[in-house]
Batch of 2 targets.
Target 1
Amino acid sequence: MQVIPTERPDVFEVRGRGELQMAILIETMRREGYELMVSKPQVITKEENGKTLEPMEKVFLDIPEDKVGIITEKLSARKGKMTDLQNHGTGRVNLEFSIPSRGLIGFRSQFLTDTQGAGIMNKLLMDMRHGMVPYLKETLEVWFQIEMEK
């Protein structure tokens, strides 16, 4: 974890690896009596040769066979690309996706709900890549903002 001071003396930027690490820090501080205001998590990007690079992850899923459609749909909407699918004929399927880290923010709880707690998800940080494509929600927000300004 890394704590970075900001221009305001009462605001700090905390960098860590994943939602769980942040949740543990926040809960520990809350139990010690600190009052916190926490902003929406953001992925740390990197500038290289004038291009913005974002972290990419490989996600490995073991899910019930009847949940493949909904999980594939949800990860595709988050810019995930399926790289492997193995159906072993046991009622469970192994999926592998390549996805930007920002696409995984908030996904774990949705995944557990969609698989009714029967899914297993592991992820591995692959590398930094360029080509930050906005999500549909981001695209619509910009479009609405432009329309409102007219």
Note: The mean pLDDT is 86.
Target 2
Amino acid sequence: MAVIYDNQEQTGFVSICMDQFVEKSFDKDLRALFKKDVRVDNKSLHKVLDLPVDKLQGIDVVSKDKLEEAGVKTIYDLSQAAASEKKIAIDATILKKWIRKAKIIVNYVQNPLTKKKLVLAGLDFAGKTSLLSVLKKDYSVIQDLMPTKGAQRDGVEFFGIPIITWDLGGQALYRNEYLDAGKSKLFFSDTDVLFYVVDVQDDKRYDEALEYYGKMLASYKNLGEKPSLIVLFHKLDPQIKEQEHVMQRIAKLQVDIANVSTDHEFSPIFASTSIYDKNSVFVAFSLGIRNISQTAELVASLLEEYTVKANGKASVLLSSEGEVFAQTGVTKEYIELVTQNGLLIDTLVKFDISKGFKLEKNPVLKFSDNEMYLIGHHISSSMGRTVYLWLLLQNLMDFTSSLAFFKNEVEPLLNLFII
């Protein structure tokens, strides 16, 4: 018999919250993708797919004619077009943006809003349950956690959407059960994101972790499932992060994991986490969710476009809950600097508000010796979270360049993020 435990309180929470999302409507966020004269009855939402392409925000009459000459007449036609199509005489960057918007609309209309399933797997004592506790901001229980028994189903809210998490206990007894051909479907089917957690401090079990990883990917492959795959090098705590021998071991392990992944036709994304650096946990899980979001690609391209126009070194869209909607920059170091400082400043802003200060619309951090500024801008407040744009740049005057256009374009997408 399969051992699956449900957290009843959390399961109820997820069911109640999902009720708010199953009933689809032509809401204000979806409306923002269209021109103001578009009127759609919620009972005939599917009709938006047959609307002429020029009903999409940003497409003028001239562009409409060019699209129609190429056989692209409706919103649905646009979603099926290729940005590289030479017979469409429109700038490829602009066309790609329109196609992405059309795809978001089609996906919203055609696909039911279902609960996303995240699976956390790895050996026992890898720290899977503690990661979930950080996500739920339930820090008080971490030190008392015991090895998880069987599969624990729970709920957590991320990017404003309830997520179902499956925490698979890592003892050998349970691992064998998950991998059993007759039972694996129960645990692995319909997985949207698989987080495979490795305790980097326990190098004596690297081979065991690698073996289980390979068997798990084989099970997914046999089931015809191919979830987004994130490998977390966990327990990379601040005090050991700079130890060269530790990083060399991890580098070798990453190569081994990549090779096993290739054997099973998977392409993992690697990230490092530590419960002593909660921001690393939110950044890693944001990466996993962004990987299954069609909207994320459009948000990322809009952020990159704005950052270039503002002569920025790096930028990030962050929520008050620690979720990373998008990030871009000229170097990894700049991206990490903006992300970490943005998260820290957001904590300070929330503290200031708790003491009676007003919400800062444009908090600024000056790096005098480096002749640079980190400036934030309040983008939106909805679904219980505040979203800030953080930008690293040398000239503050460049900050407002295209800012209004960027904000207008990206704001409605944030509430359609997991589409």
Note: The chain has three domains: 4-17+113-290, 28-110, 294-414.
